[in-house]
Structure formats: structure tokens, C-alpha cells
Amino acid sequence: MTAGALDRRGLWVAVGSFVLWGVMPLYWHLLKAVPSLQIIAHRIVWSALLVVGWLLFKYGRSWLRETLAQPRAAWMLALSGTLIAFNWGLYIWAVNAGHVVETSLGYFINPLLNVLLGVVVLHERLNRTQWLSVAIAAGGVLWLTVHYGSFPWIALTLAASFGAYGLIRKLVAVPPVRGLGVESLYLVLPALALLFWGESHGEGGFLPTGVAAWGWKLDALLVLGGALTALPLIGFADAVRRIPYSLVGLLQYIAPTLQLLCGVLLLGEEFGSERAIGFVLIWIALAVYAGDGLLRARRRPQPA
């Protein structure tokens, strides 16, 4: 499949998901008083309640059996759930520890990894202009990595874990909401155990019964975080089944660009001229790729 045959719904769903992910550092920053492990546990539990509840309402109890009956679905969704939980945990810790710029670097690197996976594993094809855009983006990411100032282990780990998650969700033949529901069921019991452990060891503060109550505003943000977790993941899983994975890779630059702007302009993190050069190169690459896609779409014959 080439970029000439685009599913418009998949394209806009992907864009919306990445925009929401791009501004999420501001949301998690509001929860910086809550320990990172507690945030991730609440994120899993409330997301699971929302997604599984909706699936039960729409499909009844048969949805789980039907989903797991798909070839390889059980173990692949267990693996993807583990990967996304790890990615969430590292990301939230990094945001609240003042590393928003480095998390954005990770999600700048991730699209290049997706393009590589799309070409090597899924045998997707790129034309010369698209390869040029990939090369420019790679140069921008390399520049950012070299001029970051220290080995960006957070960025590289975030990129690898989310790249592997996206590839698994591309390969498993499961509708996006059902896939997230199964992932949530795998994760919800460990998350509940973590919450109970936190309450019993002085790290929990949910509701007035908590050891050191965080207040109703933070409690509400933790609950709402479940919906904000589910919606972009459902959109992402839907998009990777509708449009080429290589295109998903380049559209993902929307999220780290917004994250970078949040970290620098709103959260006061450092951003010098060296990093600005890498940022400009990446956006040039995205413009080249998008321009090529528009030209190819205009040249394609219209149906009678």
C-alpha cells in the first residue's frame, strides 16, 4: 500500500490522536503532587472501567470470547498491554520530573522507527520524495540527539516501546476498542494491587479515606485521565489499520512538536538554538511528505 491510497477517516483520526497526546504533558503536570506509580495505576483502572463497560453495554459478555478467538490475539494483546503500560509509566515519571523536552525527543525518534518498521517488516513502499523527507527527518533527529547534552535514554526507551506497541496493534486482527479492552483486562488487576499497596504504605491519597488525601480536584483529574488515556489510543489503533504505517510514522511528529512547545513555552524547560535547528529540519521533512501526498492525490483519476 502506498500513500496514494489514503483513508481520510484514518488520516483525521490519527491527527486528532496525536494532537491530544501533544498537549497531555500539561494535564499530567497538574497531577505532579501524586506519585507517578499511583497515576499510572489510576490511569489503567479508570480507562479499563470506561472501555470494558462500553463493550459490555454494546456487545454483551461475548465480546471477550470473540476477540480472544482471533489468531494470536491473546498473547499479542498481552504483550502490547505490557508495552503500553511501561511506556505510560516512564512518560508520566519523566514529565513530572522535568524532562518534557526529552520525552518530546523520544516521540520525534519514534516516527522514524515506525517508518523503518513499515518498510522492513510490513513491506510498505516509499517513493523518492518520501525517502527524501525521511532522510531530512533523520538528520533532524540525529542533530537533536547529538546536541541534547547527555545520552537520551528516556527518549530512546519511549521510542522503542511505543514503536513496538504500534506494530503489534497493526498486526493483530482485532478492532481497536476491543483490543484496548483486552489490554485493560490484562493490566487492571496489577493496577488495583498497586493502588492498594500505595494506600497501605502511605503513598495513596485517593478520596477522603486516603492516607494523605490529595483533594477532590486531583481525584477528578485522575478519573478523567482514564478517558484521556482511552480516546487517543483507540484512535491510534484505528488509524494504523486504515493508513500506511509509514504515514502514521510521519504524522506522529505532531505530538512531540506540541510536547516540545508545552515544555519550553509553558513549563519553562531549556531550549537553545541547537535544538531549534533539529526542530526546523523535522518540520521541513513533514512538509515535503505532506506536499508529495497532496500532489499524488490530485493526479489520481477521479471516479466517474
Overview of the molecule:
- This protein is mainly α and 304 residues long.
- It has one domain (8-298).
- Helix content is 77%, strand content 0%.
- It has twelve helices and no strands.
- It has helices at 8-29, 36-59, 62-68, 73-96, 100-120, 128-146, 153-171, 176-200, 216-242, 245-251, 254-266, 273-299.
- Helix 6 runs antiparallel to helix 12.
- The longest helix is centred in the C-terminal third of the chain and has 27 residues, at 216-242.
- The chain is globular.
- The two termini are 23 Å apart.
- The model has no long low-confidence stretch (mean pLDDT 83).
- This is EamA family transporter RarD.
- Belongs to the EamA transporter family.
- InterPro entries: EamA_dom, EmrE-like, RarD.
- Keywords: Cell membrane, Membrane, Transmembrane, Transmembrane helix, Transport.
- The chain crosses the membrane at residues 12-30, 36-57, 73-93, 105-122, 129-145, 151-168, 180-198, 218-240, 247-268, 274-295.
The percent range for helix content is over 70%
- Major sheet details: none
Give the radius of gyration. Answer: 20 Å
Query: Are there runs of 5+ residues with pLDDT below 50, and where?
Result: none
Mean pLDDT across all amino acids: 83
Count of distinct structural domains: 1
Query: What's the total helix number?
Result: 12
* Helix-strand sequence: HHHHHHHHHHHH
- Shape call: globular
Strand proportion, as a percent range, falls in under 5%
Structural class: mainly alpha
N→C terminal distance: 23 Å
Secondary structure tally: strands: 0
